Amino acid sequence: MTQDTNKEDEQWLNALAGRTASDAAPKVIQQAESLRRVLKTRNEHLVPKADDMLYQKLQFRLRREGLDSSRQGWRNPKLWGIAATILLCIGIVFQMDRFNFNGEDKDILMGGGSETVMIVADPEARLAELKAGLGLTGEVPKVSWKINCEIQVTIKDTKRVQDYLNTQRIEPKVEDGNAIFALAPTSPHGTCFWNAMMKKFGE
Amino acid sequence: MTEDDIIRLIRTGGRAMDAGVKALYQSAAQPMLRFFVYKGVSGDDAKDVLQETFVKIVRNVDSFSAEGSAQAWIWQIARNCLIDHQRKQGSLTDHETAVNDEQWESLEETTPDQNAATCGRSRSVDECVSDGFEKFNRVEPERAMVLMLQMDGSSIEEIGNQIGRTMVATKEYLSQCRKKIQPFISHCTDLLES
Protein backbone atom coordinates (compact mmCIF):
# COMPACT_ATOMS: atom_id res chain seq x y z
CA MET A 1 0.00 0.00 0.00
CA THR A 2 2.76 2.42 1.02
CA GLN A 3 4.72 1.47 -2.08
CA ASP A 4 1.65 2.15 -4.23
CA THR A 5 1.19 5.51 -2.56
CA ASN A 6 4.83 6.40 -3.07
CA LYS A 7 4.61 5.39 -6.72
CA GLU A 8 1.42 7.40 -7.16
CA ASP A 9 3.06 10.41 -5.51
CA GLU A 10 5.99 10.09 -7.86
CA GLN A 11 3.73 9.78 -10.90
CA TRP A 12 1.67 12.76 -9.80
CA LEU A 13 4.78 14.90 -9.16
CA ASN A 14 6.28 13.86 -12.49
CA ALA A 15 3.08 14.78 -14.30
CA LEU A 16 3.10 18.12 -12.49
CA ALA A 17 6.62 18.69 -13.83
CA GLY A 18 5.45 17.78 -17.35
CA ARG A 19 6.81 14.22 -17.34
CA THR A 20 3.96 11.76 -17.74
CA ALA A 21 4.41 8.06 -17.00
CA SER A 22 2.51 5.70 -19.28
CA ASP A 23 1.46 3.35 -16.46
CA ALA A 24 -0.02 6.09 -14.25
CA ALA A 25 -3.71 6.13 -13.35
CA PRO A 26 -5.67 8.58 -15.58
CA LYS A 27 -7.21 10.35 -12.60
CA VAL A 28 -3.78 11.00 -11.07
CA ILE A 29 -2.45 12.35 -14.33
CA GLN A 30 -5.54 14.41 -15.06
CA GLN A 31 -5.34 16.21 -11.75
CA ALA A 32 -1.61 16.88 -11.96
CA GLU A 33 -1.86 18.12 -15.55
CA SER A 34 -4.73 20.39 -14.69
CA LEU A 35 -2.75 21.83 -11.80
CA ARG A 36 0.24 22.27 -14.11
CA ARG A 37 -1.84 24.25 -16.61
CA VAL A 38 -3.23 26.41 -13.82
CA LEU A 39 0.20 27.15 -12.30
CA LYS A 40 1.77 27.87 -15.68
CA THR A 41 -0.92 30.40 -16.58
CA ARG A 42 -0.74 31.91 -13.11
CA ASN A 43 3.03 32.30 -13.16
CA GLU A 44 3.20 33.74 -16.66
CA HIS A 45 1.34 36.74 -15.31
CA LEU A 46 3.04 36.99 -11.95
CA VAL A 47 6.74 36.21 -12.40
CA PRO A 48 8.84 38.92 -14.09
CA LYS A 49 11.28 37.88 -16.80
CA ALA A 50 15.02 37.85 -16.13
CA ASP A 51 15.74 39.76 -19.36
CA ASP A 52 18.56 42.00 -20.61
CA MET A 53 16.97 45.13 -19.21
CA LEU A 54 16.89 43.66 -15.72
CA TYR A 55 20.51 42.56 -16.16
CA GLN A 56 21.53 46.09 -17.12
CA LYS A 57 19.78 47.41 -14.03
CA LEU A 58 21.68 44.89 -11.96
CA GLN A 59 24.99 45.99 -13.49
CA PHE A 60 24.13 49.60 -12.75
CA ARG A 61 23.35 48.69 -9.15
CA LEU A 62 26.64 46.79 -8.76
CA ARG A 63 28.50 49.81 -10.17
CA ARG A 64 26.69 52.09 -7.75
CA GLU A 65 27.71 49.82 -4.88
CA GLY A 66 31.34 49.91 -6.05
CA LEU A 67 31.23 46.22 -6.97
CA ASP A 68 31.76 46.44 -10.73
CA SER A 69 34.83 45.15 -12.54
CA SER A 70 36.53 48.57 -12.83
CA ARG A 71 36.71 48.86 -9.06
CA GLN A 72 37.28 45.21 -8.38
CA GLY A 73 40.65 45.10 -10.11
CA TRP A 74 42.35 44.78 -6.75
CA ARG A 75 41.02 41.23 -6.56
CA ASN A 76 43.09 40.28 -9.60
CA PRO A 77 46.27 38.44 -8.47
CA LYS A 78 48.12 39.62 -11.59
CA LEU A 79 47.60 43.23 -10.60
CA TRP A 80 48.76 42.40 -7.09
CA GLY A 81 51.94 40.94 -8.61
CA ILE A 82 52.59 44.04 -10.69
CA ALA A 83 51.95 46.32 -7.70
CA ALA A 84 54.33 44.27 -5.52
CA THR A 85 57.05 44.43 -8.20
CA ILE A 86 56.72 48.21 -8.50
CA LEU A 87 56.89 48.61 -4.72
CA LEU A 88 59.94 46.37 -4.58
CA CYS A 89 61.69 48.42 -7.27
CA ILE A 90 60.89 51.67 -5.48
CA GLY A 91 62.19 50.17 -2.23
CA ILE A 92 65.43 49.03 -3.84
CA VAL A 93 66.02 52.44 -5.43
CA PHE A 94 65.47 54.13 -2.07
CA GLN A 95 67.79 51.73 -0.30
CA MET A 96 70.50 52.14 -2.94
CA ASP A 97 70.18 55.86 -2.63
CA ARG A 98 70.46 55.62 1.14
CA PHE A 99 73.43 53.28 1.19
CA ASN A 100 75.44 54.58 -1.72
CA PHE A 101 74.56 58.15 -2.40
CA ASN A 102 74.24 59.74 1.02
CA GLY A 103 77.53 61.45 1.73
CA GLU A 104 76.82 61.96 5.42
CA ASP A 105 76.40 58.27 6.13
CA LYS A 106 79.17 57.15 3.85
CA ASP A 107 81.93 56.71 6.43
CA ILE A 108 79.79 54.54 8.61
CA LEU A 109 78.28 52.55 5.79
CA MET A 110 81.52 51.95 3.96
CA GLY A 111 83.15 50.89 7.21
CA GLY A 112 86.29 52.82 6.39
CA GLY A 113 86.01 56.25 7.87
CA SER A 114 89.50 57.24 6.77
CA GLU A 115 88.77 58.78 3.39
CA THR A 116 87.98 62.48 3.31
CA VAL A 117 84.81 63.28 1.41
CA MET A 118 83.95 66.87 0.61
CA ILE A 119 80.28 67.54 -0.01
CA VAL A 120 80.00 70.26 -2.62
CA ALA A 121 77.23 71.60 -4.81
CA ASP A 122 79.12 71.03 -8.07
CA PRO A 123 81.93 68.43 -7.78
CA GLU A 124 83.07 68.96 -11.38
CA ALA A 125 83.54 72.71 -10.88
CA ARG A 126 85.32 72.18 -7.55
CA LEU A 127 87.55 69.57 -9.17
CA ALA A 128 88.57 72.05 -11.85
CA GLU A 129 89.57 74.61 -9.17
CA LEU A 130 91.53 72.02 -7.18
CA LYS A 131 93.26 70.68 -10.28
CA ALA A 132 94.37 74.19 -11.12
CA GLY A 133 95.70 74.74 -7.58
CA LEU A 134 97.37 71.32 -7.34
CA GLY A 135 98.97 71.90 -10.73
CA LEU A 136 101.00 74.71 -9.15
CA THR A 137 102.52 72.20 -6.68
CA GLY A 138 104.25 70.38 -9.52
CA GLU A 139 102.27 67.17 -9.02
CA VAL A 140 99.62 65.78 -11.33
CA PRO A 141 96.44 64.46 -9.61
CA LYS A 142 94.86 61.22 -10.70
CA VAL A 143 91.07 61.53 -10.92
CA SER A 144 88.51 58.73 -10.97
CA TRP A 145 84.70 58.91 -11.20
CA LYS A 146 82.59 56.52 -9.15
CA ILE A 147 79.03 55.39 -9.91
CA ASN A 148 77.85 56.83 -6.60
CA CYS A 149 78.59 60.32 -7.94
CA GLU A 150 81.85 60.71 -6.04
CA ILE A 151 85.01 61.96 -7.69
CA GLN A 152 88.15 60.52 -6.12
CA VAL A 153 91.40 62.49 -6.31
CA THR A 154 94.77 60.82 -5.68
CA ILE A 155 97.97 62.84 -5.69
CA LYS A 156 101.53 62.29 -4.49
CA ASP A 157 101.79 63.41 -0.87
CA THR A 158 104.38 66.18 -0.82
CA LYS A 159 104.77 69.16 1.51
CA ARG A 160 103.62 71.55 -1.21
CA VAL A 161 100.55 69.41 -1.86
CA GLN A 162 99.76 69.28 1.88
CA ASP A 163 100.24 73.05 2.17
CA TYR A 164 97.89 73.66 -0.74
CA LEU A 165 95.26 71.27 0.58
CA ASN A 166 95.52 72.97 4.01
CA THR A 167 94.65 76.28 2.35
CA GLN A 168 91.57 74.51 0.95
CA ARG A 169 90.80 73.05 4.43
CA ILE A 170 91.13 69.50 3.10
CA GLU A 171 92.75 66.84 5.27
CA PRO A 172 93.36 63.96 2.88
CA LYS A 173 93.87 60.34 3.76
CA VAL A 174 97.51 59.43 3.25
CA GLU A 175 98.19 55.98 1.95
CA ASP A 176 101.30 54.57 0.24
CA GLY A 177 102.73 58.05 -0.12
CA ASN A 178 99.60 59.37 -1.77
CA ALA A 179 97.07 61.91 -0.53
CA ILE A 180 93.53 60.77 -1.28
CA PHE A 181 90.25 62.64 -0.96
CA ALA A 182 86.90 62.64 -2.67
CA LEU A 183 84.28 65.14 -3.82
CA ALA A 184 80.59 64.28 -3.54
CA PRO A 185 77.55 66.26 -4.68
CA THR A 186 75.00 67.58 -2.18
CA SER A 187 72.18 66.02 -4.22
CA PRO A 188 73.11 62.86 -6.13
CA HIS A 189 71.36 62.30 -9.45
CA GLY A 190 70.64 59.27 -11.61
CA THR A 191 73.12 60.14 -14.36
CA CYS A 192 76.20 59.52 -12.14
CA PHE A 193 76.42 55.90 -13.20
CA TRP A 194 76.42 56.80 -16.91
CA ASN A 195 78.85 59.70 -16.37
CA ALA A 196 81.22 57.37 -14.51
CA MET A 197 80.98 54.82 -17.32
CA MET A 198 81.63 57.46 -19.95
CA LYS A 199 84.65 58.78 -18.06
CA LYS A 200 85.95 55.25 -17.60
CA PHE A 201 85.69 54.53 -21.30
CA GLY A 202 87.21 57.95 -21.93
CA GLU A 203 90.21 56.97 -19.86
CA MET B 1 29.45 26.22 -15.78
CA THR B 2 28.84 25.11 -12.19
CA GLU B 3 28.10 27.42 -9.28
CA ASP B 4 31.61 26.69 -7.97
CA ASP B 5 33.08 27.99 -11.23
CA ILE B 6 30.89 31.06 -11.01
CA ILE B 7 32.02 31.80 -7.45
CA ARG B 8 35.66 31.35 -8.52
CA LEU B 9 35.20 33.84 -11.36
CA ILE B 10 33.56 36.43 -9.13
CA ARG B 11 36.35 36.01 -6.60
CA THR B 12 38.98 36.65 -9.27
CA GLY B 13 37.63 40.15 -9.90
CA GLY B 14 38.03 42.35 -12.96
CA ARG B 15 36.63 41.03 -16.24
CA ALA B 16 36.35 37.54 -14.79
CA MET B 17 33.97 38.90 -12.17
CA ASP B 18 31.76 40.37 -14.90
CA ALA B 19 31.66 36.98 -16.62
CA GLY B 20 30.83 35.30 -13.30
CA VAL B 21 27.99 37.71 -12.55
CA LYS B 22 26.59 37.21 -16.05
CA ALA B 23 26.76 33.42 -15.74
CA LEU B 24 25.07 33.59 -12.35
CA TYR B 25 22.36 35.83 -13.77
CA GLN B 26 21.75 33.44 -16.65
CA SER B 27 21.48 30.40 -14.41
CA ALA B 28 19.89 31.74 -11.23
CA ALA B 29 18.03 35.00 -11.90
CA GLN B 30 14.83 33.45 -13.30
CA PRO B 31 14.57 30.71 -10.62
CA MET B 32 15.16 33.37 -7.96
CA LEU B 33 12.48 35.67 -9.36
CA ARG B 34 10.06 32.71 -9.39
CA PHE B 35 11.06 31.79 -5.85
CA PHE B 36 10.46 35.33 -4.56
CA VAL B 37 7.09 35.62 -6.31
CA TYR B 38 6.05 32.17 -5.09
CA LYS B 39 6.89 33.32 -1.59
CA GLY B 40 4.38 36.13 -1.96
CA VAL B 41 6.57 39.00 -3.17
CA SER B 42 5.19 41.20 -5.94
CA GLY B 43 6.88 41.17 -9.36
CA ASP B 44 8.49 44.60 -8.90
CA ASP B 45 9.67 43.82 -5.39
CA ALA B 46 11.05 40.49 -6.61
CA LYS B 47 13.35 42.43 -8.97
CA ASP B 48 14.61 44.52 -6.04
CA VAL B 49 15.21 41.44 -3.90
CA LEU B 50 17.07 39.86 -6.84
CA GLN B 51 19.39 42.88 -7.07
CA GLU B 52 19.96 42.79 -3.32
CA THR B 53 20.81 39.09 -3.55
CA PHE B 54 23.38 39.66 -6.30
CA VAL B 55 24.96 42.58 -4.45
CA LYS B 56 25.35 40.42 -1.34
CA ILE B 57 26.75 37.50 -3.30
CA VAL B 58 29.42 39.69 -4.93
CA ARG B 59 30.19 41.58 -1.73
CA ASN B 60 30.49 38.45 0.43
CA VAL B 61 32.01 36.11 -2.13
CA ASP B 62 35.23 35.81 -0.10
CA SER B 63 33.31 34.47 2.88
CA PHE B 64 32.18 31.41 0.93
CA SER B 65 33.91 28.29 2.18
CA ALA B 66 34.93 25.94 -0.62
CA GLU B 67 33.96 23.00 1.60
CA GLY B 68 30.27 23.80 1.25
CA SER B 69 27.95 23.70 -1.75
CA ALA B 70 28.13 26.90 -3.79
CA GLN B 71 24.53 26.49 -4.91
CA ALA B 72 23.32 26.10 -1.32
CA TRP B 73 25.35 29.18 -0.28
CA ILE B 74 23.86 31.26 -3.11
CA TRP B 75 20.32 30.22 -2.21
CA GLN B 76 20.96 30.84 1.47
CA ILE B 77 21.75 34.45 0.56
CA ALA B 78 18.61 34.64 -1.60
CA ARG B 79 16.49 33.36 1.30
CA ASN B 80 18.10 35.83 3.72
CA CYS B 81 17.45 38.72 1.32
CA LEU B 82 13.84 37.61 1.01
CA ILE B 83 13.46 37.50 4.80
CA ASP B 84 15.02 40.99 5.08
CA HIS B 85 12.57 42.26 2.49
CA GLN B 86 9.61 40.67 4.21
CA ARG B 87 10.72 42.12 7.55
CA LYS B 88 10.88 45.58 6.01
CA GLN B 89 7.44 45.05 4.53
CA GLY B 90 6.17 43.67 7.82
CA SER B 91 4.86 40.61 6.00
CA LEU B 92 7.04 37.94 7.56
CA THR B 93 4.96 35.09 8.93
CA ASP B 94 5.82 31.60 9.93
CA HIS B 95 3.98 29.69 7.21
CA GLU B 96 4.91 26.29 8.55
CA THR B 97 3.22 26.87 11.89
CA ALA B 98 0.26 28.74 10.46
CA VAL B 99 -1.76 25.53 10.35
CA ASN B 100 -1.15 22.76 12.87
CA ASP B 101 -2.06 19.09 12.45
CA GLU B 102 -5.40 19.36 14.21
CA GLN B 103 -6.35 22.28 12.05
CA TRP B 104 -5.36 20.23 9.03
CA GLU B 105 -7.64 17.41 9.97
CA SER B 106 -10.40 19.93 10.33
CA LEU B 107 -9.57 21.41 6.94
CA GLU B 108 -9.50 18.03 5.27
CA GLU B 109 -12.95 17.31 6.63
CA THR B 110 -14.57 20.60 5.71
CA THR B 111 -12.79 22.08 2.73
CA PRO B 112 -13.73 19.59 0.00
CA ASP B 113 -17.42 20.03 0.60
CA GLN B 114 -17.05 23.78 0.73
CA ASN B 115 -15.03 23.75 -2.44
CA ALA B 116 -17.44 21.39 -4.12
CA ALA B 117 -20.21 23.76 -3.33
CA THR B 118 -18.46 26.58 -5.10
CA CYS B 119 -17.42 24.47 -8.09
CA GLY B 120 -20.46 23.97 -10.25
CA ARG B 121 -20.52 21.42 -13.05
CA SER B 122 -20.57 24.21 -15.59
CA ARG B 123 -17.12 25.32 -14.54
CA SER B 124 -14.10 23.68 -16.10
CA VAL B 125 -11.78 21.44 -14.16
CA ASP B 126 -8.96 23.98 -14.53
CA GLU B 127 -11.05 26.77 -13.05
CA CYS B 128 -11.96 24.55 -10.13
CA VAL B 129 -8.31 23.55 -9.61
CA SER B 130 -7.30 27.20 -9.86
CA ASP B 131 -9.74 28.19 -7.12
CA GLY B 132 -8.59 25.28 -4.99
CA PHE B 133 -4.95 26.19 -5.44
CA GLU B 134 -5.52 29.84 -4.47
CA LYS B 135 -7.18 28.66 -1.26
CA PHE B 136 -4.35 26.23 -0.61
CA ASN B 137 -1.84 29.02 -1.27
CA ARG B 138 -3.46 31.18 1.38
CA VAL B 139 -3.17 28.56 4.13
CA GLU B 140 0.04 26.84 2.96
CA PRO B 141 2.10 29.28 0.87
CA GLU B 142 5.36 27.35 1.45
CA ARG B 143 3.88 24.11 0.14
CA ALA B 144 2.18 25.92 -2.74
CA MET B 145 5.56 27.39 -3.64
CA VAL B 146 7.22 23.97 -3.60
CA LEU B 147 4.53 22.63 -5.96
CA MET B 148 5.21 25.57 -8.28
CA LEU B 149 8.93 24.79 -8.22
CA GLN B 150 8.12 21.18 -9.05
CA MET B 151 5.89 22.36 -11.91
CA ASP B 152 8.82 24.46 -13.23
CA GLY B 153 10.88 21.30 -13.51
CA SER B 154 13.33 22.16 -10.72
CA SER B 155 15.35 19.19 -9.48
CA ILE B 156 14.99 17.84 -5.93
CA GLU B 157 18.40 19.35 -5.12
CA GLU B 158 17.38 22.77 -6.46
CA ILE B 159 14.13 22.74 -4.53
CA GLY B 160 16.01 21.60 -1.42
CA ASN B 161 18.47 24.47 -1.75
CA GLN B 162 15.65 26.95 -2.16
CA ILE B 163 13.70 25.81 0.88
CA GLY B 164 16.77 24.91 2.94
CA ARG B 165 16.16 21.15 3.25
CA THR B 166 18.16 18.05 2.44
CA MET B 167 17.26 16.02 -0.65
CA VAL B 168 15.62 13.25 1.40
CA ALA B 169 13.61 15.76 3.42
CA THR B 170 12.61 17.57 0.23
CA LYS B 171 11.32 14.35 -1.36
CA GLU B 172 9.22 13.66 1.71
CA TYR B 173 8.04 17.27 1.77
CA LEU B 174 6.90 17.03 -1.88
CA SER B 175 4.88 13.89 -1.14
CA GLN B 176 3.27 15.68 1.80
CA CYS B 177 2.49 18.65 -0.44
CA ARG B 178 0.54 16.38 -2.79
CA LYS B 179 -1.46 14.99 0.12
CA LYS B 180 -2.08 18.41 1.64
CA ILE B 181 -3.45 19.91 -1.58
CA GLN B 182 -5.88 17.02 -2.19
CA PRO B 183 -8.68 18.41 0.00
CA PHE B 184 -8.61 21.55 -2.14
CA ILE B 185 -8.61 20.04 -5.64
CA SER B 186 -9.57 16.34 -5.55
CA HIS B 187 -13.26 17.13 -6.04
CA CYS B 188 -12.41 18.94 -9.30
CA THR B 189 -11.45 15.77 -11.15
CA ASP B 190 -14.35 13.93 -9.48
CA LEU B 191 -16.61 16.29 -11.41
CA LEU B 192 -15.40 14.77 -14.68
CA GLU B 193 -16.28 11.25 -13.60
CA SER B 194 -19.77 12.25 -12.53
Tell me briefly what this model is.
The complex is a heterodimer of chains A (203) and B (194). In chain A, strands 1, 2, 3, 4 and 5 form a 5-stranded mixed sheet that branches.
Approximate strand percentage of chain A? 5-15%
The best one-word shape of chain A is: rod-shaped
Q: Structural class of the secondary elements of chain A?
A: alpha+beta
Overall morphology of chain B? elongated
Can you characterise this structure?
The complex is a heterodimer of chains A (203) and B (194). Chain A is an alpha+beta fold. Chain A has eight helices and five strands; from the N terminus they run αααααβαββαββα. In chain A, strands 1, 2, 3, 4 and 5 form a five-stranded mixed β-sheet that branches. In chain A, β4 (173-175) and β5 form a beta hairpin. In chain A, α1 packs parallel to α2 (26-46). Chain A is rod-shaped. The model of chain A is unreliable at 101-112 (pLDDT under 50). Mean pLDDT of chain B is 82; it is low at 94-100 and 102-122.
List its salient traits:
heterodimer, A: 203 residues, alpha+beta, 5-stranded mixed β-sheet, 5 strands, B: 194 residues, mainly alpha, elongated
Q: What does the secondary structure layout of this molecule look like, with pairings?
A:
The complex is a heterodimer of chains A (203) and B (194).
Chain A (H helix, E strand, L loop, with lengths): L1 H15 L9 H21 L5 H13 L12 H24 L5 H5 L5 E5 L2 H13 L6 E4 L5 E6 L2 H9 L5 E3 L2 E8 L6 H11 L1
Parallel strand pairs in A: 1-5
Antiparallel strand pairs in A: 2-3, 3-5, 4-5
Chain B lengths: L2 H10 L1 H25 L4 H17 L10 H20 L11 H18 L6 H15 L1 H11 L4 H8 L3 H27 L1
Helix pairs in contact in B: 1-2, 2-3, 3-4, 4-8, 5-9, 6-7, 6-9, 7-9, 8-9
